[in-house]
């Protein structure tokens, strides 16, 4: 990597929220970032909008306010909003069998599996057993056909395990069947465009020049001396097990940063993992959720739907993740292990490498953080956005 002088912190920060700027500066000073951005809103108003660093591994191209980056599983929260809109419209019933909307899904004993379990990660479909070639991940019909035929790994509704990739095809196919639109198009037309936000599930070619290059980051050592969590190592331990199949079937083209830089990945429709956005757009979407579902005259959800989305459904051991998870309907909630917020009813979703979007309706707080240095560790939310979010709460 080419050594370059640090890019200055750019953007705006209200004086009352200077602690967020301080935390952002520390992250760069400590060498934790290559390029990153953070945006915080209160009551619908932007109070922090900062960016810095570089969008390429050689550190020659400065990060800009409109730099886009793959946010991996942070995409799931946006996909979940699409499903909640259909529920709110009376077109989708959370307690109805998935097979009512997707008849092929009734195979392998899944005829009564409710839509709700797709959003709560209780469906038992976190992975596909049949080995799939790399290219299959880019084939929507192949992936949904495989999932429709799959037998659950555990009795649905009895346990939960993070559906790392399959969440997007499962929820996305229901959205497609009900709305008649692909998730890619639905998110653009019903969520991003009305809010004036950029969020692309599959990034269009015309935006390539603005997309940040992902770079490998460190693997964090646990403070308690336990074994460090490393995705590749976990997959190698049991390549035929549930964890390995969840993250590596279809077989990936390398580690997440390599996948995210692949043009085929960038163009594909993978609603669990290949959303592309920037911090202020991500924060704008969560700002709407933190303010009754409406922002600047654009309404994406009502308060009843928001409250339903953030109601705890499961909490405890996760069959996939290395730490306990607490999950609503498509969103993750604060846990004792990772408090995130003084408000246990706040909610959001994080992505591999570190990105995070967050809404707190009680404090009218919206938050978005994106980056290109891909950190790994045994956590639900990366310590970098946790530090920024803590500083934002300290500033209230």
Shape: globular
Please state how the strands of the largest beta sheet are arranged side by side.
1-3-2-14-13-12
Roughly how much helix do the residues carry, as a percent range? 25-40%
Distance between the termini: 39 Å
What is the beta-strand fraction? 15-25%
CATH superfamily, by name, is DD-peptidase/beta-lactamase superfamily
Structural class: alpha+beta
CATH topology: Beta-lactamase
Number of strands: 15
Radius of gyration: 20 Å
Uncertain segments: none
SS summary, helix count = 13
Largest sheet: 6 strands, antiparallel
In total, the number of domains comes to 1
Order of helices and strands: EHEEEHHHHHEEHHHHEHEEHEEEEEEH
In CATH terms, what is the architecture?
Answer: 3-Layer(aba) Sandwich
The averaged pLDDT comes out at 95
Report on the structure:
32% of the residues lie in helices and 16% in strands. By secondary structure, it is of the alpha+beta class. The chain has one domain: Beta-lactamase (3-Layer(aba) Sandwich), CATH 3.40.710. The strands form five sheets. A six-stranded antiparallel β-sheet has the order 1-3-2-14-13-12, sandwiched between helices. Strand 12 (347-350) and strand 13 (356-360) form a beta hairpin. The longest helix is centred in the N-terminal third of the chain and has 15 residues, at 74-88. The protein is globular.
Question: Could you write a compact summary of the structure shown?
Answer:
Helices cover 32% and strands 16% of the residues. With 396 residues, the chain is α+β, with helices and mostly antiparallel strands. Helix 1 (18-29) runs antiparallel to helix 13 (383-394) and helix 7 packs across helix 8 (242-248).
